[in-house]
Amino acid sequence: MNTQNKSQIETIQSGSSLKPYQKIHELTGEVVNRYKYLEGHPRQYRFDAKEGVFNINGNEKLGRTLTFQPIAWRIFTDNILNMGTKNWAEIFFIDEKNCVSAVLFHGYSVDNIFRLIEPLYYDDLTLADVVITAVAEKKENNKIQPKGVYYIANFTYKMADVEKTKELKQFAQEVKVFRQETLTDIANIKTAMNYYNPFANPVDEPVLLAAG
Question: What b/e readout covers 139-164, taking b as 16+ CB neighbours within 10 angstroms?
Answer without folding.
Answer: eeeeeeeeeeebbbbbbebeebeeee
